[in-house]
């Protein structure tokens, strides 16, 4: 087949966005980390390792930011993996309404982290919060705490909130892995006298290694870049007890200390780039009484799964119920039903929060960036898969580094200014697309490999050029993967909080996430209105999740099953 059938320019769009908005700011950040760059002096001077000395000296709090980030990452990896594994084991046992429980447990994963933070600011409130209220009602009032303001409990609470949000995500990945393990192995070991836990340890876990590796890697990449949870729940407090790298970077940015902030970002950038190298290497691999007892076990298992589902859905139901109350009844943020329905809360929120403009902005940003991402990623994945020469193999692996690469917001801001994209809708759309391209290329690459090359040859014989061949023959066959990528990218873009926080200064251009955060700051005493705002912001992604959960789960589990 002629070499020009798979032209290099197909992959240029994705690579250009990726290099310009992710790689270049990261590399430039390394250079600026050795300067005294700040907002008070236009001149930039080379100062050697001074910024890094500040970061690692221990005289400031920067080391505690790094320590907290690592503790958060390790803790959430362990907790979410263990909890997700046992939930997956329970669901694969054939509990009643298995698909419903899976949908409920996974739902928090698609809710914006900003929204989760606002929900748990209510749940963990020391006086009216659902958790302390429950503890007092069951006679355990002595266990009630100031969860978010106590030095002992604040960081633990943030970890717990993140585990609540992410355990279902890990469960789905591990459940997909468990479903590929042949039952014959387990049955043979049981016949040989192996106990249940022995079979789990010696058979299930080794065969589940690919899915476990995916879950650990994804958790690690997410945990090291944590921002939204901490920013919304505690903003790094009390004191510096919950400060992590990205919240510290944001504060350095706000104070105009770009040199030190860039050095702190560079530490994370270098660490995650090295980590990303190993991730890419891994991704690149090919590859009677007994009846009564069983009945008791089965019903016990079902009961426990129902409890987990209830704990998962309770905070979301709490917000929905209180969005229908008046201000006085919602002030206690209880689970009691509203004495009368106040649907007018949603109209008030729409008017006072100017949500019509924010809703349009979110749809515009998420819709256009996702469409751009799908097309560019599909073109790139097509060329990388169909023409696997040395350059394309390198380009594909280089692209996958973006899965681990953190953004350097200091130099990214400078890049956006040079391109005249700062505080523009076009800039946000391009940024959203650039951030989603590495994962999208990874998912689509595998699907392109499953499309027979004979179709390419038939198209060429019929006179198709490269563009027509791709869009008329190949791309329609990628529809399942394209739908998966579209839904995942749309959800991620809709939920994005940090990028618009940095790059959109005009309220008229804010997406829903920024508007709901601003609304909370203005009306935090009116929990009925705050709850209504949260419902309106979350509703589109929840509906999209319920309609497309099969595609979402397919994308989430991409790469977790080798074979």
UniProtKB/TrEMBL annotation:
A Pfam family this chain is assigned to: BPD_transp_1
Alphabetical GO biological process terms: transmembrane transport
Domain ABC transmembrane type-1 span(s) in chain numbering: 66-279, 359-548
Alphabetical list of Gene3D superfamilies matching this protein: MetI-like (1.10.3720.10)
Residue runs in coiled coils: none
Membrane topology: Multi-pass membrane protein
Transmembrane intervals: 12-34, 70-92, 104-124, 153-178, 199-222, 258-280, 301-321, 363-384, 396-416, 428-448, 469-491, 527-547
One GO cellular component, as annotated: plasma membrane
Locations listed in the record: Cell membrane
InterPro entries: MetI-like, MetI-like_sf, UgpAE/MalFG_permease
CDD domains documented for this protein: TM_PBP2
Keywords, ordered alphabetically: Cell membrane, Membrane, Transmembrane, Transmembrane helix, Transport
PROSITE patterns tied to this protein: ABC_TM1 (PS50928)
The keyword Membrane is annotated on this UniProt entry: yes
Keyword Transport belongs to the record: yes
Similarity remark: Belongs to the binding-protein-dependent transport system permease family.
Protein's recorded name: ABC transporter permease subunit
Species name: Cohnella ginsengisoli
Upper classification of the organism: Bacteria, Bacillati, Bacillota, Bacilli, Bacillales
């Amino acid at each position: 087949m002629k070499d020009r059938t798979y032209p290099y320019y197909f992959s240029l769009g994705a690579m250009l966005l990726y290099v310009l908005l992710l790689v270049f700011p990261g590399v430039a950040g390394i250079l600026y980390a050795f300067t005294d760059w700040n907002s008070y002096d236009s001149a930039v001077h080379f100062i050697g390792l001074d910024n890094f000395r500040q970061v690692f000296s221990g005289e400031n709090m920067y080391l505690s930011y790094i320590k907290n980030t690592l503790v958060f990452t390790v803790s959430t990896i362990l907790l979410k993996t263990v909890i997700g594994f046992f939930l997956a084991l329970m669901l694969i046992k054939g509990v009643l309404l298995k698909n419903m429980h899976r949908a409920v447990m996974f739902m928090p994963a698609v809710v914006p982290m900003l929204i989760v933070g606002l929900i748990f600011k209510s749940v963990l409130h020391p006086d009216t919060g659902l958790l302390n209220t429950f503890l007092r009602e069951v006679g355990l009032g002595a266990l009630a705490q100031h969860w978010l303001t106590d030095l002992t409990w604040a960081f633990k609470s943030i970890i717990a909130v993140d585990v609540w949000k992410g355990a279902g995500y890990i469960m789905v990945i591990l459940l997909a892995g468990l479903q590929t393990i042949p039952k014959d192995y387990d049955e043979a070991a049981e016949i040989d006298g192996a106990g249940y836990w022995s079979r789990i340890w010696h058979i299930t876990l080794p065969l589940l290694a690919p899915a476990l590796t995916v879950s650990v890697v994804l958790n690690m990449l997410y945990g090291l870049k944590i921002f939204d949870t901490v920013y919304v729940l505690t903003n790094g407090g009390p004191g510096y007890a919950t400060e992590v790298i990205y919240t510290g970077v944001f504060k350095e940015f706000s104070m105009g200390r770009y040199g030190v902030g860039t050095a702190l970002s560079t530490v994370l950038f270098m660490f995650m780039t090295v980590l990303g190298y190993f991730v890419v290497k891994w991704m690149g691999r090919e590859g009677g009484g007994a009846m009564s007892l069983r009945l008791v076990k089965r019903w016990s298992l079902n009961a426990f799964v129902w409890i987990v589902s209830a704990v998962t859905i309770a905070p979301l139901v709490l917000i929905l119920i209180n969005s229908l109350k008046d201000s006085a009844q919602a002030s206690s943020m209880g689970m009691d039903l509203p004495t009368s329905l106040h649907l007018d809360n949603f109209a008030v929120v729409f008017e006072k929060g100017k949500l019509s403009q924010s809703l349009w902005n979110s749809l515009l940003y998420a819709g256009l960036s996702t469409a751009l991402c799908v097309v560019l990623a599909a073109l790139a994945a097509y060329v990388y898969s169909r023409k696997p020469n040395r350059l394309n193999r390198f380009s594909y692996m280089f692209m996958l580094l973006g899965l681990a690469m953190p953004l350097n917001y200091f130099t990214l801001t400078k890049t956006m200014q040079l391109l005249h994209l700062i505080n523009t809708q076009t800039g946000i759309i391009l940024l959203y697309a650039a951030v989603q391209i590495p994962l999208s290329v990874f998912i689509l690459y595998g699907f392109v490999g499953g499309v027979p090359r004979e179709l390419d040859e038939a198209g060429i014989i019929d006179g198709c050029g490269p563009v027509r061949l791709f869009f008329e023959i190949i791309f329609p066959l990628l529809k399942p993967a394209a739908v998966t990528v579209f839904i995942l990218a749309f959800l991620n873009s809709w939920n994005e909080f940090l990028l618009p926080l940095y790059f959109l200064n005009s309220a008229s251009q804010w997406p829903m996430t920024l508007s709901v955060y601003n609304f909370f700051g203005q009306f935090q005493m009116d929990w009925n209105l705050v709850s209504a705002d949260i419902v309106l912001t979350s509703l589109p992604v929840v509906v999209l999740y319920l309609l497309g959960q099969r595609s979402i789960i397919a994308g989430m589990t991409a790469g977790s099953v080798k074979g």
